[in-house]
Design goal:
- By secondary structure, this protein is mainly beta.
- It has a single domain, classed as SH3 type barrels, CATH 2.30.30.30.
- The chain contains no helices and six strands.
């Protein structure tokens, strides 16, 4: 398990308890992340300063 800043997240990373990152969209205040979870695409929004954990 590794901690990562949102700006360093890459497509294909697998976020713990969420799933595989399919798309990343950067907005002025937040990031919109599309993740494959429960056999569907789901969109999550994270503030720029938040940290994430991935495998």
């Amino acid at each position: 398990m590794k901690e990562i800043n949102l700006k360093d997240l890459k497509i294909g990373d697998t976020l713990i308890n969420l799933g595989e990152v399919l798309e990343i969209e950067e907005h002025p205040v937040f990031y919109s992340i599309v993740i494959f979870r429960n056999n569907e695409k789901q969109v999550f929004k994270f503030l720029e300063e938040q940290k994430l954990f991935f495998n």
